[in-house]
Amino acid sequence: MGALQTFREFSVLGWLREGRQSRRLILLIVFVALLLDNMLLTVVVPIIPSYLYTADHKASPVKNQTASPGPDTVPSSNTFQNIFSYYDNSTRLPGNASEETSQRAARFSYTTTTTSPVTNATEAPADCPKKDKRLLNENVKVGLLFASKATVQLITNPFIGPLTNRIGYQIPMFAGFCIMFLSTVMFAFSESYTLLFLARSLQGIGSSCSSVAGMGMLASVYTNDEERGNAMGIALGGLAMGVLVGPPFGSVMYEFVGKTAPFLILAVLALLDGALQLFILQPSKSAPESQEGTSLFALLRDPYILIAAGSICFANMAIAMLEPALPIWMMETMCSRKWQLGVAFVPASISYLIGTNIFGVLAHKMGRWLCALIGMVLVGVSILCVPFAKNIYGLILPNFGVGFAIGMVDSSMMPIMGYLVDLRHVSVYGSVYAIADVAFCMGFALGPSTGGAIARSIGFPWLMTIIGIIDILFAPLCYFLRSPPAKEEKMAILMDHKHPVKTRMYTQNSMQPYPLEEDEESESDE
After folding, report:
1. Which of 11, 95, 203, 414 has its CA 20 to 30 A from that of 372?
2. Under 8 Å between Cβ of 484 and 420
3. Helices (DSSP H) in 131-169: which residue ranges?
4. Concatenated DSSP letters for 9-35?
5. What is the CA radius of gyration of the chain?
6. CA dihedral 144, 150, 153, 157 (to 10 degrees)
7. What does the pLDDT look like over 359-383, one tens digit per residue?
8. pLDDT tens digit sequence for 204-245
9. Cross-strand partners of 90
10. Distance (Å, whole) CA 106 – CA 216
11. C-alpha to C-alpha distance for 281 and 274, rounded to whole angstroms
12. Cα 478 from Cα 334, distance rounded (Å)
């Protein structure tokens, strides 16, 4: 009996039950949710441009063959040479039949010889389709498809933020998993552009639920500003790993296994994440916030929140413009193979993972506003260098700089959003992280949709120049986040607790010669 009791105590289910209140397990759930969401986000980057181009390429010779008669239609003219007469039950041969037949045969042979080179030229996609206008047209189609996810997420976020304030974070988080699983299965089996567009749009609803609820949950359980920054840096590391693994995983699986395989693997991983959420978060229970949060419109009128949101938007817009345009530009100028289209994003993904983990801790010490300012400048400079690459190796350094700089901005601005709410508003975080996610989505909605059209009209180098200059010009605004003022009512609360908080901080750093006794400290807390 004793051994059985011990086994029950240390069983996995028992560990999960005990860990429902653990902040680390909540951080793990958010990490995995962001990982899978961004793997699905980026796994399509190398697959969709090549898949749509190949599908359009295969459709074109079918149209050419149906538009003109082939050589098999020539013998059918012979059926008109012999005419059966019901008048005298005889078969007659017209005098001009042989001449007419020879003219038809000549005409059909001429049509065949003129159309056969076109058919042969479009039988299979070329390894280096530099002169193909349809490749440039893919910019717009791919850009709109990529932007559909962010556009739907942009529309959904203002509803998800207030919803989390009313029913808690658990139910929206689990709903995000269910929707993402459905979207992944649709991607696996969709063959038409319309179904792929629908799957991408559906992913936007799931991403809105997961990201807003996940970040709000972390902000609510990590109340200390430094701990919150570290936790969000780790969570953004899951986002970075998804961005890191997605493109190479998608490109390699697509070339050597097929389009369906990478999405089915993601669907299985999503099921495991759903099981983890089911045991730990218990999404059947509603857990509303104890106090009413600041309205979404009041937060949107805060200029400091708008500056932080703008930094997130324009920094991520750079990589959002790269995702649909870079693979097509590589196919056009570098004759790149399918697997190279995804591998080109690996330096950006690795550096983003490094940046979020380093500056999740370091940004608190050096100043998050300074970290974001440097990151915005570095994004602009790196993106300006991308068009100078002559081959895939020339993309390594610029893409590395882009990813590292975006990691600096995201790991600085995400904690600042929670800090601004604590400082200037009510400490309820669903709405403010809905704004942060709206900013992120605006970058990924405007980036691909406008970027595809710009790349088609004035070229890929000018597209990179425009977004690079925008990032550099926006960077000085981060200076205003250096010491944002508190609201009057918040200032009164902070002044009441100002002395004991500073005393404890100085005591921690061994700078206070007269530390408080335990009784005095408890009284000051009251």
Report:
1. 203
2. yes
3. 133-167
4. HTSHHHHHHHGGG-HHHHHHHHHHHHH
5. 30
6. -140
7. 878 888 888 899 999 999 999 999 9
8. 899 888 888 888 888 888 888 778 888 888 887 787 788 778
9. 85
10. 76
11. 10
12. 38
